[in-house]
Specification:
The complex is a heterodimer of chains A (155) and B (39). Chain A has 155 residues and is an alpha/beta fold. In chain A, 46% of the residues lie in helices and 11% in strands. Chain A has 7 helices and 5 strands, in the order βααβααβαααββ. A 5-stranded parallel beta sheet of chain A has the order 3-2-1-4-5. In chain A, helix 1 packs parallel to helix 3. Chain B is mainly α and 39 residues long. Helix content of chain B is 72%, strand content 0%. The N and C termini of chain B lie far apart (43 Å). Classes of the chains: A alpha/beta (155), B mainly alpha (39). Chains A and B meet through helix 1, helix 3, helix 4, helix 6 and helix 7 of A and helix 1 and helix 2 of B.
Chain lengths: 155, 39
Amino acid sequence: MPRRPGGEPLIVDASFVLGVLLRQSLALRFSTALERSHIVDVNLGEVFYKMKEKVGAEPNDVGGVLHANGLQVIATGAAGAARFPMLKKLDLDHRERLRQQGWPPGDIKSLSLADIACLASALERNFVVLTGDKHWKLLGLPLRIEDFRDTDLVL
Amino acid sequence: MLSALQDRVAAALEESGETAESVIDSLLADRAADTSLRP
């Protein structure tokens, strides 16, 4: 049974937005969802630097197109930032659990600053998260986190 | 407008030998290497 986040507002991660811009087939399925999507400014910065680094696209051009397609830029804000310590602790505990379960150290992922900015902002607003960073789903956060590369996902 | 940018990006990707997946994976690798908040 496909999982359906429905018409809820989304927080999209840089990985998904890159997927749309780069015509990644699984991301393209959801390109119209940009009109109900939000992106944290830090994650938008990731889109900009990666588009400049890999394909030479200018931030103004990329930002203009995303804005025209309805993507709204949000800031983490003080209330979101106040969630950083909790997210870091959760991340630390999660990695420790995986170590105890015998996971190879190279397979244990941790949250980056950009990851935390996205998740903190989603928690603040209780929005569905759309990402390509699958390990976010393993953290047990009280959020709906969807992997845009999940072939069963329907938005 | 989106499709025009996607066309330009597709041409640049083809020229560079990158793929959409490789660019996304490079973002995730950059994040994995980010130790700014790691205890």
